[in-house]
Amino acid sequence: MTHSIHTQAAIRTLSQAFAPLNCLILASRKGGFSFTLVNEHGIARHSERLYPEQYSQSEPLQAVIERTRQALVA
Q1: How many angstroms separate the CA atoms of 72 and 57, rounded?
Q2: Of all helices (H) and strands (E), which one includes residue 69?
Q3: pTM, to two decimals
Q4: How confident is the model at residue 3 (pLDDT cuts 50, 70, 90)?
Q5: Which domain of life is it from (predicted)?
Q6: How far is residue 65 from each of residues 13, 15, 21, 41, measured CA to CA in Å?
Q7: Which is more confident, 52 or 1?
Q8: Cβ contacts of residue 28 below 8 Å, gap of 6+?
Q9: In angstroms, what CA-CA distances link 50 with 20, 40, 55?
Q10: Residue 18 has pLDDT above 80, yes or no
Q11: pLDDT category, 60, cuts 50, 70, 90?
Q12: Cα 70 to Cα 16, 32, 66, distances in angstroms
């Protein structure tokens, strides 16, 4: 798979994992991208930059999701 396919799959996974929050994708370049989770009022709740080694396989991406969920609860 190419980086583009991995990136698209990761974005879909993040969007589904954090619904109903909006997952905004920013600065997609050099294989990495930033995502920001925004609530229904437009307030950013979490922002993070991901690199290919964090999302090209399911285990590291799942770790990012779990870490982000914990940060949202805190």
Answers
A1: 23
A2: helix 58-73
A3: 0.86
A4: low
A5: Bacteria
A6: 9, 10, 13, 22
A7: 52
A8: 7, 34
A9: 21, 23, 7
A10: yes
A11: very high
A12: 17, 23, 6
